[in-house]
Amino acid sequence: MQRWKLTLEYDGAGFCGWQMQKDARSVQQTVEEAIKGFADEHVRIHVAGRTDAGVHALAQVCHADIDRPSDADTVRDALNYYMRKHPVIILKAEAVTTDFHARFSAQARHYMFRVINRPRPLTIDRGYAVHFYKPLELQPMQEAAAVLLGHHDFTSFRAINCQSPSPMKTMLHTRVEQKDEEFRFYFSAKSFLYHQVRNMVGSLFFVGTGQWSVAEFKRMFEAKERAQAGPTAPPQGLYFMGVTYD
Amino acid sequence: MQRWKLTLEYDGAGFCGWQMQKDARSVQQTVEEAIKGFADEHVRIHVAGRTDAGVHALAQVCHADIDRPSDADTVRDALNYYMRKHPVIILKAEAVTTDFHARFSAQARHYMFRVINRPRPLTIDRGYAVHFYKPLELQPMQEAAAVLLGHHDFTSFRAINCQSPSPMKTMLHTRVEQKDEEFRFYFSAKSFLYHQVRNMVGSLFFVGTGQWSVAEFKRMFEAKERAQAGPTAPPQGLYFMGVTYD
Hints:
By secondary structure, the first copy, chain A, is an alpha+beta fold. Helices cover 23% and strands 32% of the residues of chain A. The first copy, chain A, is built from five helices and ten strands. The A-B interface holds A 9-11, 14, 56, 58, 80, 84, 87-91, 120-124, 126, 128 and B 9-11, 14, 56, 58, 80, 84, 87-91, 120-124, 126, 128.
C-alpha cells in the first residue's frame, strides 16, 4: 500500500460540492471512481478542505491509500484519464508516508473570494465571481479585515449547522485587494468554521458600502452572535487556494 | 428616431456568435429581440466586430436606430431586462448622431487572447482560455509579435472564407504578457481579416515552443501563404476588448 498526496484543481460549478451526495456528482465521488477505474480498489479519500457546491479549488489537497504499485506520474495521468469528462484535474501526485494526513497535517488553509463591483450583472464571470452592485470602498474593508487577525471566537461568522467543536480560530493572514472593478479577499488560517469565509465577506460588504464603520464591524464581531453579522456571500466567488503542510 | 451607441459585454460560450443563425441563439438576435420587447420595433443593429461562437466580448459596440423616445439609462436598463436570461449585458447606452456608425466609424479594434500554458488540461478556465501544454517562451513570442506591426499583407493569417476586399491591414499595437502559467496576447488595428487574431496566435505558438525562430516566423509572414502559417487557435481564448472612435 502507498499513500498518495493529490493536489487538485476543480470548477465548483460542475459539482454538488466535495462531499458525496445522492443523485448529484461530487468531487469526492469523481476521484474515488477514478481510483476504482485505475486500481480496481474501493478507496475512501480524505480532503484538506471540504467545499460546498459552486466553490472552486485551485490547489485542493486530498490523500488516498492505493495498493496497486505505481509511480507518481502514472497515478496522476491515469486518474486524470478516468476523470476526463469532469471539470477536475490532478495537478500533482506525490508519494507520502502514512503519517501524512491531508486534513489533520494541514498547518494553514488559504481561501480567496472574488467580487465584481459594478452596477450591471455579470456575463463572463457569472459562476466565477460574485456580483455586488453598490459601490465598495477598499480601505475600510482592509481595516475591518485586519480586525479578524489573531485568535478569536468567530461565532459571529459561524453557520448554524457548523460541526466544529469550538468557535475559536486563529486568523493568520487577511488581505483585500482592488483592481479596477474587481475586489479580492484573501484569508489564511489553520482551519475555518463552516461558511466562515463567506460570512466574513458578507459582513465586510457592509463596511465597504459605509453601512457599518470599522468600529461597528468590530462590535458585531465581538458580540459573538451570528444574527448581528451580515449575510452569507454566495459560493461562486469562493476559491480554495491551497494548503500549507510542515 | 434616435441612434443609440450600445457597449456590450457577453460570454461567447452562451451564443452561436454575433451573427444571426437558424436554430441557434446569436448575440445579434438577443439584442434585436430586446429592442422589439422595449420599443415594439424591428430594428437591424450594426456591430463593430462580429465575433464567432465561443469568442467573448468585454466592450463590443453596436448601434441601433430606435423611434421610441427615451433616455440613455432607460434604454440600457430596459434592454438588459429583456436580455436577462442570456449572458449578455449592455454596459452603456449613449445617444449619438446619425453620422456615427459602429462599424464604419471605428478607428481601432482591440483584441486579447488568453492561453494557459501547463501540462494539465483546464477546469475553471475551460471555455475562457485556451490550453497549450508544450512550454512557451515569452521573449521570442514578443519579438515575433513585433514583426506584425505596421502596414502589411496579412494573407498568411487570412481565413479562406474571409470576405475582406484586401489582405492589407495596419497593425497598430501588439503586446505579449506572461503572468505565471498564463500568457496574454494583445492586438490593435483599424480592422482585422477573418480569423486573423486566432491565426496569428496559432503561429506565435510555433515561435514560443522554439519550433520556429523569429526569422522563420518573419519568412512565413512574408510568404503570404496561409498554408505556411500555423493552425487557427481555438475561439474560447479570444476576447473582443473594445473599439476606439474619434
